[in-house]
């Protein structure tokens, strides 16, 4: 059974936080869908609040701490990424942006990414299309169609939890399931392409042998 790795990045500042809660629920939705497709799934959550000092020091020294480097490697090595930020001043948080500023511009190329945000009012939901999508488009990531925004009123409401997916519900639970399903489909479609690319890699020794023959 093939193992796929999902990494959720949460930029919530409190503990617990609605940002972390949304990250966990999105990861669970994607994991459930991949499990249905008979994949083994490893889920890891990166809490940026625990790395805030290390991120700031990295900008000053130019070198990541061991813990920060591990987090960056987890994100760049994942099969799929869930990126969730609270909304500050109508955009993503500075901590969220600073973390992704430390990732090499080509490290997320073609990688499936699900973007999500939390905020006090639904008026800030445009952050998904005006800030988050452009950021990951610049990083050349493959952003899934459904992005999820959770306002304060979305929590603690029954919403459409009792409605089957595809039967007209558009509350937070339905959006989480839809986004998780889309991420799972994108992630499941990538291994074959990645294996095909690996098959085309010519070993260095073979390249030298070919040069000698020439």
From TrEMBL:
GO molecular function: oxidoreductase activity
Keywords from the named record: Flavoprotein, FMN, Oxidoreductase
Matches recorded under Pfam families: FMN_red
Superkingdom of the source species: Bacteria
Enzyme Commission numbers on file: 1.5.1.-
Record bears the keyword Flavoprotein: yes
Enzyme class: oxidoreductase
Domain NADPH-dependent FMN reductase-like: residue ranges: 5-155
Coiled-coil portions: none
The protein's name in its UniProt record: FMN reductase
């Amino acid at each position: 059974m093939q193992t796929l790795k999902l990494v959720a990045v949460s930029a919530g500042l409190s503990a617990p936080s609605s940002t972390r809660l949304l990250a966990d629920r999105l990861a669970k939705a994607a994991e459930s869908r991949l499990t249905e497709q008979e994949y083994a799934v490893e889920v890891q959550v990166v809490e940026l609040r625990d790395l805030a000092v290390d991120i700031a020091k990295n900008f000053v020294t130019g070198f990541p701490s061991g813990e920060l480097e591990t987090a960056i490697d987890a994100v760049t090595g994942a099969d799929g990424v869930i990126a969730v930020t609270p909304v500050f001043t109508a955009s993503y948080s500075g901590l969220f942006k600073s973390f992704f500023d430390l990732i090499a511009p080509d490290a997320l190329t073609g990688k499936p990414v699900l973007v999500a945000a939390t905020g006090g009012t639904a008026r800030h939901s445009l952050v998904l299309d005006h800030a988050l999508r452009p950021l990951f488009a610049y990083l050349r990531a493959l952003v899934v169609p459904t992005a999820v925004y959770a306002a304060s009123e979305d929590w603690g409401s029954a919403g459409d939890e009792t409605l089957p997916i595809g039967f007209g519900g558009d509350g937070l639970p339905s959006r989480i399931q839809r986004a998780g399903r889309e991420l799972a489909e994108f992630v499941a479609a990538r291994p074959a392409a990645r294996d095909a690319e690996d098959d085309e890699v010519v070993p260095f020794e073979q390249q030298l042998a070919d040069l000698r023959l020439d």
